[in-house]
Amino acid sequence: MTASEIRALFAVASRPEVVSLAGGMPYLAALPLDVVGGSLERLVAERGLVALQYGSGQGDPGLREQILDVMALQKVHASPDDIIVTTGSQQALDLVTRVFVDPGDVVLAEAPSYVGALGVFRSYQADVVHVPLDAEGLQPEALREQLEKLRRDGRRVKLLYVIPNHHNPAGVTLSAARRPEILEIARRYGVLVLEDDPYGLLGFDGDPLPAIQSLDSDGVIYLGSFSKTFAPGYRVGWAVAPHAVRERLVLASEAAILCPSSFSQLAVSSYLSNHDWKHQVGVFRELYQERRDAMLDALDDLLPSASWNVPQGGFYVWVRLPAGLDAKAMLPRAVTQRVAYVPGTAFYADGQGRDHIRLSYCFPTPERIREGIRRLAGVLDAELEIQSTFGPGMGPTPAFGMGRVTGPSDSPSPDLT
Ligand SMILES: Cc1ncc(COP(=O)(O)O)c(C=O)c1O
C-alpha cells in the first residue's frame, strides 16, 4: 500500500474557502437530525445493554431482515441468512478480495472504476485489468474479448467487479439489456461477479433496475450500503453471497473485526423501523437531482470546451478535459484557485485518466457548485492559454510532488470516495 499523492492536496482542499467538487460525501443536513437523535436516545435507554455489547459476526438478525426490504426495491433474492453485515461496503470489498484473490490473480474492473475498490485489489496484489464502459455501462463485447485473451494467456481471473448503477466515477448505469449478457459471459468463463451498488436507490427517473444478482444468485456477490441513502458515519453496509461463500466471509470478518458495531446496526435498524426511510431517500433524490442540474447548467454555460455525461442518478459527473490538458498536473493550480476535483488517474490501476476529472455535486449547494465551476473554468482557460503559447505539457511545475506518469491508483481517503 502506498499513500496517495493527492492525499496531501486534499488536506488543503478541505479548507472552507475551497469549493470541493471532489468528495462523495452525502448531504447529511437533509436528514431529520432531531428524529435521528431521539431514536439514538431511546435506543440506549431501551436496548443499551445489547447495543453497547459485542454482537454476532454475521450481523444483527433484525437488521438483516430489514435489509431484505431495502433490497426488494431492486429485486435481490435472499434470505436473512444469506446476508453478512459489514463495516460499510468497503469492508465487504476487502473481505471478498481476501477470500478469493491470491497475489497475481486477475480482477476485472470497469475503466474507470471506484478508487476505493482499486486500493483493496492492489493491497492483495491482484492484477487489475480494465474493461471499457460506455453510456450503457460495461461493454459486453470488450469483456468477452478480454476474458478470451486472458484465457489464452493462461491467467486466472477471480472477480468481475461492477458498479451497475450511477457509477462512481463515470455516472453511467448498466442497461437492462446488458445485465443478463454480462452475467452470461461471466458464467461462461467461470468468473464471480462482484456487484457493488451503493447508489442503486438514488436514481432520478423511474424505478431502479433489477440488480444483476436478481438474475443469478449463485454467480454474484451483491454489496449494499446505508452510507449514501442514510449516513456513512454509522459505517453499515452488507454483502449477499451464495451460501458457501458467505460462511467464508463471516469467518474472515470475525478474524478482522470480531463483529460489526452493534450500536451502529441497531441505530440503523431503529431508523428503518421508526422513520419513513423511503420518503427520506426521495428527499435525497430530489436534492441531488437539483444539484446535478445546477452542475450541468454551469458546465454548459462556463465550460463549453469540455464534454461530460448526463448522470441519471448518484453523485458524479465524469468530465473529459479539452485535448492536451492534464487533470493531475492541473490539480494544484485548481486548489490554488480554490476549487477541487478528483483527477481521472485515481480511477484507473494503470495510469490512464489524465484527460478526465470527476466532479461531485452531492455536497455543495447549487450556488457553490456554480461558483466552483466558474473557478474551474478560469483554471482551464489559463491552462489552455499556456498550452497555446508554449505547446502541450508546458504548465507550471506541479506542486505537492505530483507528476508521476504511470502507476496504480491511490489508496482512498474519505475525500476521494
Ligand atoms: C462504488 C462505491 N463502493 C463502495 C463505497 C464505500 O462505501 P461505504 O463503505 O461507505 O459503504 C463507495 C463510497 O463512496 C462507492 O462509491
Automatic annotation (TrEMBL):
Instruction: Name the residue ranges with Polar residues bias.
Output: 408-417
Question: Matching SUPFAM superfamilies, A to Z?
Answer: PLP-dependent transferases
State the InterPro entries in the record: Aminotransferase_I/II_large, Class-I_PLP-dep_aminotransf, PyrdxlP-dep_Trfase, PyrdxlP-dep_Trfase_major, PyrdxlP-dep_Trfase_small
* Transmembrane residue ranges: none
According to the record, the signal peptide region is: none
The protein's matches in CDD domains, at most eight in alphabetical order, are given as: AAT_like (cd00609)
Q: Tell me the segments the record calls region Disordered.
A: 393-417
Sorted alphabetically, which keywords does the UniProt record give? Answer: Aminotransferase, Pyridoxal phosphate, Transferase
Listed cofactors: pyridoxal 5'-phosphate
Q: Which residues form the Aminotransferase class I/classII large domain?
A: 51-376
Q: Which GO terms describe its molecular function?
A: transaminase activity
Name of the protein in question? PLP-dependent aminotransferase family protein
Q: Which organism is it from?
A: Spongisporangium articulatum
